[in-house]
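Might I ask for a little of your time on a matter of protein folding? The record follows directly beneath this note:
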Amino acid sequence: MFGSLDLVFMGTPAFAAPTLEALIAAGHHVVAVYTQPPRQAGRGRKERRSAVHEAAVAHDIPVHTPASLKSPEIQVKFAAHDADAAIVAAYGLLLPIEILEAPRLGCINLHASLLPRWRGAAPIQWTILSGDREAGVCAMMMDEGLDTGPVLAYERIAIGPLTTAGDLHDQLAALGAPLIVGALEGLADGSLRSVEQAEVGVAHARKIVPDDARLDWRRTAVELERVIRAMTPAPGAWFEHNGERIKVSMAVVGEKSRAADSGTVVDRDLTVQCGVGSLRLVRLQRSGRKPMAATELLRGYPIEPGTVLPLPSH
């Protein structure tokens, strides 16, 4: 095995935690972890540390939670770690040039797409929303652009017809951990060279906003089924009925359109007419309740055929 390297790890959510664990297991010395500050969460609004924060504490690694990396004082402290490399995975803060240039080997980022497709904040969701047949992870050298740096290595994975964002998240996190370890060691010993990204095929995965999760029945059934999978488990695709938001986590595309306006419930199986085709809602969740099968929901909360579900105003 390649000799131990001194590393700074920069990441926040559960996606990044397996990579931190893999680097430690590979024998590298993580001298510091940078992660987002604790956030209020849950009904009690108690401060909750990130998944990476918790993992770092479990390994007795010093943790830093700056709100920004722009100040000279923070940049000097970062450089003082004298790290061989910084490993970045879903950190959530922009890295100024002073941070990017501080480690001897630079900053290596784990990105959840097959670059240059899906640069940006939400590659997993946009991969599913767009109907891509495959996804992947890249180990890339970071520069000042948004996911524009040269790629060291990548892994591909097929997307199944039932794959949700949650499923893909877990699969890519598991793929990314050994990918980063191998790429780091190949970079350090000179056996691996980075390759510039192609200039064609660039796509941008903007941040998901609340309106993205609302089901607009004027869209095609195929598109809406992708929305449901892309928003599961969070934030959850939803529609409105009697002023209540109802989330949908599974649906089946119907083969034919029905003679009804978009948003009309056309049968007792909770099939909804869409702009093209129809969508049978299979698993749902009322506010404050557990997810349940449509048959169970309808027993206590009937949505009769002929009901027209509201459409978004935009």
The helical segments are 17-25, 51-58, 72-79, 97-100, 123-129, 165-189, 221-230, 294-300.
